[in-house]
Amino acid sequence: MKGQESRTTWESSIIEGQLSKNLARYTLLLDKLSTLSQIDKLSEVIANDYAKQCKQLDVFVQQSQASLNTQSRKLELQRTNLTTTLAQFHGTVNTISSSNTRAKAIHDDIETVDQERALVNKTLQFLKDVRTLKNNISLAHSALETKDYLVAATAINEIRNLPDKDLIVSEFAKKVVPSSEIPEEPAILIKSWCKELTSLFQEQFMKATRTQDIKELTLMFKMFPMIGQDVLGLDLYSKYVCDIIADESRKIMSNSMENSTKFQGFFSQVLLHLFKIVSTIINDHSKVIAACYGEKHMVHVMEKVEKEADLQASLVLDIFMETRKVDRTIHDINEWNHLQKNEDRNTSSKQSNDETDEETEQTSIISINDLALLIIEFSQILQNWSMYSRFYSVKWYEFTNLHPHVLQPPSPITDGKFALKLEQDTVFYKFQVLVLNHLHRSFKNSISLEELPSLNDLITSDPIDDQDRNSYPVTSVLDDLILLVRKNLISVVNTGQFKLLSSFLNELVKFFQNQFLVKFMQNKFKLLQSKLTSSVSLKRYIPKREDQSTASRSVSPPANKFSPLSRFTFRGAAATALTNIQSNLQAVVAEDEDSILALHHYLIFLNTLYLNKVYVHRLLSMEILEDNSQRILKDNFPFNNDSEQLKVLILNSEKLVSDQTDKLSKWGIKYLFQNILQNRIRNLLGTIFVNSASSTSSGSNQNNVSRDYSASANQKNYITSIEDFEDLSQINSFNSKWNQLIIPYKNILHKEAYVELLAVIVNYIVGTLEQRIWSLEFNELGVTKLDRELSLFIGNICGLNYKLREKFLKLTQIVLLLGLDDDNFDLTTGDIKDDFDGTFDWAITSQERIKARNMKIDRRQ
């Protein structure tokens, strides 16, 4: 059908196109008409075209009519089919409608049956419950007559747990349940029984607590929830438990109070025992409470128990503070601190300082040893509280069925009397005062007992392997200090109190900065620097013997009773002159020995600074943070995010101490170089990188060092011949003297201290040699020899330390440029060619490269 329509449309378009074409042709012919014959001929053409078009239109109309008739018949046929289908659809709809009506009727019948069945079941259950009620009332009545209270309570509990709470007051129950033996209504009867049993159980429970009849007590405790007295049972049980805690606490205190002053750690043991009792009660009795009352009721008991534990712990803490005279000790410590401030201001004479020290010790009511024992006991008390708080918090959330992402102390702990007492009585502050006083006083004593090791065994030209070394020479004060800090840090960490540790870390940083680095170390350096002379060298210290010093003091010119001229003789004058010379020599020797000893001590204190960083890192980071097996922070500080915050504080504290130590150590290294080593190294450098032929011709009667230095100052070229090309005596001599100078420092100083000193020396050497090499001129052999000598020079000074070798990069690139062929340079610019420039990361500029090439005198012009 669609094909027929498209064909008709196509034929129609063709006819219309033909007509348009003929009309255009006619219009064209009309424009060209000129004669009558042409008009006749045009009329004939039009007539023919008209006949032809009419014929085509007749055919088209006939075909279109036939096609339309065919399509009409098809549509009629389709309408007939649709009518049949519609009739069938209406029949199906009627069938479905009747089915729905029938299904609704069936559903209504089923629902009615279900309702009737539910009513029957409800009635049946009601009757069963009434029968259960009646049987249990009868059972409870019989049990009460025989005083079998467990059976009676069980029966009453079953009645109370009936599903229908209104059953006991229903009219049916009121008529059916009462009997001739038990005429009362069920609700009144049960209420009366519960009231009677409540008084009875309470009386029996109190009696069992007095007689310590645990079996009877447990039985009574189990039966309270059966008669609806859960809260009363828990209150009685909580009071019983609290009485146990109080009795045990009083028993411990009364039995051992007489010896408490002699037994250090007594109060911490009392508190630990108290918390153990509470923990045992919570652990063991929770099983009974969970079985009879439910776990949620355990929280109620824990609140009561915590109040009693707080009360007894506060009592122990008060007795501890009074017995150990903590407040008096704090007062004396504050006075001691005040005297220390006055001592720091008073620096007029050593005698006044000594007198102040004596007065300070006399005013101290407690010795350092007793103070250390007090701190340990104080720390254990706070540690026991911290451990108990953690246990209590875990159990609290276990019984409340809460699982917080981060453990937090519950309200009975945070709002408890003991926690508030710690804050109100400034217990944390007092503990910190004790710890800091012990640290300051012990450190002061360690300074007075300071010992310094001898360096004589380390002063040798033979290098000592680091692997063969067990320790570096340091002052005994550092070892004592680290032990003191570690001891007090352990006491603070063990308390498990975030405030204490965070505050102690801040005070510890101040202590290291002020007391150790400034007042002790910096003052030591300044005192030793005043004793050092620029001519002192590092050698073994041999103290002057006592007999020699006595002899030198006994040598003196004889007494002269007459005029100086009357007894004058040449022999007497010579003896007098000799005596004066000996005295002067001995004074110089004594001064030299003092400078040598001062240099030894200076190096020891440099080691002390660098070892201080190592020890502080080991004490804070390694022992506390990196020891994963002990999990110190997480175990001692479990609440909130305390462990993470403390980790940050510890790292920051270590960094602050390390930074301050670095500043002082670099200052000490710089002074050592500038005032002790710089002149010697300058003299050593005067003997290298000079023409050996010129330097040896400067005269043989002069001093070697001054001759070589003069030669290097006047030498302007580095012209080497074949004869002296292999002569490396200058650099070998330098290396030998360098090793004699520097190896003793390497043997003595800590590895980092030596590297720091060597870095300062290398910076000076590089600057000096760079100026010298820029002022020289070279031939081909001279460049090659300079390359060999510079390689030996750098290798001997830097060894395998490539960071130091990089400091010579500019010098090595200058020598590299001097050794390049002329073909590698651009004759126009004088600089190296572009294709060669990209192969190196140059440390020298283009102008310096041009200047370096001009230093070579045998290059191609």
UniProtKB/TrEMBL annotation:
Keyword presence, Transmembrane: no
Which keywords, in A-to-Z order, does the entry hold?
A: Golgi apparatus, Membrane, Protein transport, Transport
Xref: Pfam families? COG4_C, COG4_m, COG4_N
The record, for InterPro entries, names: COG4 (IPR048682), COG4_C (IPR048684), COG4_M (IPR013167), COG4_N (IPR048680)
Q: This protein's superkingdom?
A: Eukaryota
Q: Which GO terms describe its cellular component?
A: Golgi membrane
Return the similarity comment.
Belongs to the COG4 family.
Taxonomic path? Eukaryota, Fungi, Dikarya, Ascomycota, Saccharomycotina
The protein depicted here goes by the name Conserved oligomeric Golgi complex subunit 4
| BP-aspect Gene Ontology terms | protein transport
The compartments listed are:
Golgi apparatus membrane
Give the COG4 transport protein middle alpha-helical bundle domain ranges: 190-526
UniProt cross-references to SMART domains, sorted A to Z = Cog4
Q: How does it sit in the membrane?
A: Peripheral membrane protein
TM spans (from-to): none
Region Disordered, residue ranges = 341-361
